[in-house]
Amino acid sequence: MRNLIFILLSVFFYSASSIALEPNREQEIDIGNKIFLYIPGEVEFEKVFEVNEEGNITLPEIGKVKVAGKLPSRVESELKLRLAGFYRELSRFYLEVRSRDLLVTVLGYVNTPSQITISEKGNIQMVINKAGGLRPGAQLDQMQIRRSGEVIEFDYKAYLDSGNVDLLPTIKTGDTVFVPVSKLIGNVQVDFDAQTLTATGDASENKKAVTLFGELHRPGSFSFKPDMTIVDALMRAEGVTRYADVTKIRVIGSGEPTIFNLKQFLDTGDSSLLPVVEPGTTIFVPIVVDDVNTTASTVYIMGEVPKPGGYEASKEVSFMDILANAGGPTRYAETRQIKILTKAGESKQFDLLAYTEGFTDQKLPLINPGDVIFVPEKTDINEKSWLKVSPKRAIKIIGAMNEPGRYEWSDEMDFTDLFSHAGGPTKAANLNDIKIVRAGQVAMRFSLDKYASSNSNDYPLPKLQAGDTIIVEELPHDPKDNKSQWVRQSPDSSIYVIGQVGSPGRYGFNDELHFLDILAAADGTNENADIRNIRITHRNGSQARVSKLDLALYFETGDETLFPKVLTGDTIYVPEKNKDWLSKPKESVVRIMGAIEKPGRYSFDDSMSLLDILAEAGGPSNTALIDKIVVINHSCCKEQARVFDFEKFIKNPNSANIPVLRAGDTVYIPSDKDDITANTKTWLRDILTIAALVIGL
Hints:
The protein is of the alpha+beta class. Helices cover 20% and strands 24% of the residues. The chain has 16 helices and 35 strands. Strands 7-6-10-8-9 form a five-stranded mixed β-sheet, with helices on one face. Strands 12-11-15-13-14 form a five-stranded mixed β-sheet, with helices on one face. Strands 17-16-20-18-19 form a five-stranded mixed β-sheet, with helices on one face. A hairpin with a 5-residue loop joins β16 and β17. α1 runs antiparallel to α2 (72-83). The relative contact order is 0.04.
């Protein structure tokens, strides 16, 4: 009952006070306001209570009370009811808002960052003053007010310049005023004076600044102001120095450079000569230099002549006249590569040696005023400098040569000239597959052995041109050592021998070699070889196919037709005779070979799949190209080969993508050593390493 009476009384007093004060339009209590509560005889209530940033005041006996956002009459009624339990004499109790101060937090580059209060009619300047003022280095044009997640940026400098109070935003209680630091101050705190801070300008943003450098007393970046002229900008930098060339001041704005003649402007006062200055403009004042005196009939000659320089030339003066006046070419001049640079920017080449000896029908070049004659220095082949010969007239020859390197090329030369100039091939050079690389690709292959043994008309020399690269590969030193030479041997000229042979591996091969040649190079078969079931995988056609060779039958009959035609890239597999191949017919097994842990013949039925046979063979090896597994179907009607991307199947399993495998089929897993792209990169890297080593030596 007592609580009910208390609630009713609260409603009564609040309603009464609201009705009574409605005409006065009471203002709600806000953060920072100072409130006075009158209770006769109570010393604790003689002071004013300030509403903190949480909207509360702290009173004796009852503690924190939420008052922000409420009308004073309502707060008075609520407090009177709550204080009635502690104080008896409340008949004269009243609440008075003594001041409506604003509670503002000041942060940033001020002397005393703190939380301060100002009067209701205060402004930004009063807030900064109460925070101890600004520190040297404060950025005045980018000050901020942060209010409920919103950032209001304003230009305090513009207010100080004009005194216009309307430029300042209104302060509200609870606001945070932030003063940023100037970008002229670095990351290390150092006390600067005003002169030091403004030594390089007062700009805050490069995009809006006017940058001045060169022969100025105080170069730097300065803030752009409306209606600023180039003279104003120069005065901001305290003017030009005594060494400045005021006739060639460069002004770059919006990407368009212009030349400004300050002397002409000062002589005439013509404002139309002033270039436009806008935010981001760059102004450069150059130093005075001695100009080169030129005339309308000057021709220049430079390079390997005794007296280079500018010469006056009339229409009757010829190329020879100018060259003779310059003292003629020196002993170091390259007279076959003289260049004439015309005034229009065209470059012409003149061969003085060919002209004097009558090798060509060319005429003397016409020389006009403003042209430049350049006589280059002769190339010294004993000096290892690539800069002596430009790429447009050089050919590189690398590999198994006695003197590999970069040689000057002329269209009068041929392949044999260049080969002999490079000292000829070494003993280990592979002369059957010389590569000519042009524009980053192998343009042609050439066999020097074939050229030497045939009529030159039947097999002509390759046509070379400047910029080509000739690569002469090196043959393996020993067939047994061929594994260490794989990077020097291209897969395009190799054949693979695996299984029960003396030295399995990869061997160099060409069209002139026979099956027995490659088998002999692999040291023949060993005592465990099953020579009646040798398998050859032919990989040069549109699809891989496998053929069988009974070598024992050849030795019994001598029939050469038993040998299959082997080409580069093919694989010869000699199985082990201990495996009982004959116990199981080929129609009931699947052959799996290549980069697999346990290659061989495996029993197979219709309940199994390709995945079963791969698992039974131990899975692909570490070097296997699982995205290029070849499945060869040997049906009664037609043989065909399909490629299975096992890697793609692992990422996106779909049984429909697994090739159908039947008894009698063959599965081949290629190795990354067969990957032409990877081998080519390795080969090129090795060749470049050898070339760098040779050049270094």
